[in-house]
Amino acid sequence: MELHNTQAVVAKDTHRFRVICCGRRWGKTTLAMLEMVGRAVGKKDTRVAYLATTFAQARDISWEMLKKYVQPIAVKINESRLEIIIRTQDGGESLLVLRGWEAVETLRGQRFDLIVLDEVSSMRNFWLSWQEVIRPTLTDTRGDALFISTPKGFSHFYDLYNLQETDNDFKSFHFTTYDNPHIPVDEVDKARSQLTSDRFEQE
């Protein structure tokens, strides 16, 4: 599956921590799933995690798409735990897991090569869990993180987006729904006419 132009900009970037502020229907879930599969298939014993705001959202938003992408290389699919073991290009196996932020503590003490955090602006107590739970899981592997969200005012996601100004590991990107060539422009324009200007700019 091909990425559209602005998705490709993010995928090609080599910063360790990438922060994406994007509009609805920009294609964040597609990018996240393809990045996860690409990382996992590249080297055996790779561990990749995706965190949505809740476990139910991880299942409803991303699970079917992920299964579709890995179908030819899937070794074992665990429907109840939302975990998939896949074959890697070097003949080994790697693990993909989907989790919910409400149970972020269950990741404490684990290790990952890549973690995707989806809808960061809706994640409560973000900095505490990032610093005490998530960030340490990336230490052994020098792993990466992909932070994706629509904005919600001057929240923790706003601060995260601005970390690129003080930390060279971070790179931030901003894209709108208009940047997805697969979404009809007239449909976005219609949404603009039906929403308040503040709500439209946020979404």
Please describe what this structure looks like.
It is a single chain. With 203 residues, the protein is of the alpha/beta class. The protein has one domain: Rossmann fold, CATH 3.40.50.300. 36% of the residues lie in helices and 23% in strands. Strands 3-4-5-2-6-7-1-8 form an eight-stranded mixed β-sheet. α4 (126-137) links the parallel β6 (114-118) and β7. The mean pLDDT is 89.
Task: Produce a short descriptive summary.
The protein is of the alpha/beta class and 203 residues long. Helices cover 36% and strands 23% of the residues.
Topology:
Elements: H1 5-12, E1 17-22, H2 28-42, E2 47-52, H3 55-70, E3 74-78, E4 83-87, E5 93-100, E6 114-118, H4 126-137, E7 144-149, H5 156-161, E8 170-175, H6 185-194, H7 197-202
Parallel strand pairs: 1-7, 1-8, 2-5, 2-6, 6-7
Antiparallel strand pairs: 3-4, 4-5
Helix pairs in contact: 2-3
Could you say what the CATH architecture is?
3-Layer(aba) Sandwich
Name the poorly predicted regions: none
How many structural domains?
1
Strand proportion, as a percent range, falls in: 15-25%
- Order of strands in the sheet with most strands: 3-4-5-2-6-7-1-8
CATH 4th-level superfamily:
P-loop containing nucleotide triphosphate hydrolases
**Strand/helix succession:** HEHEHEEEEHEHEHH
Q: Please report the number of helical segments.
A: 7
Overall outline: globular
Helix content: 25-40%
Largest sheet: 8 strands, mixed
Secondary structure class reads alpha/beta
What's the CATH class label? Alpha Beta
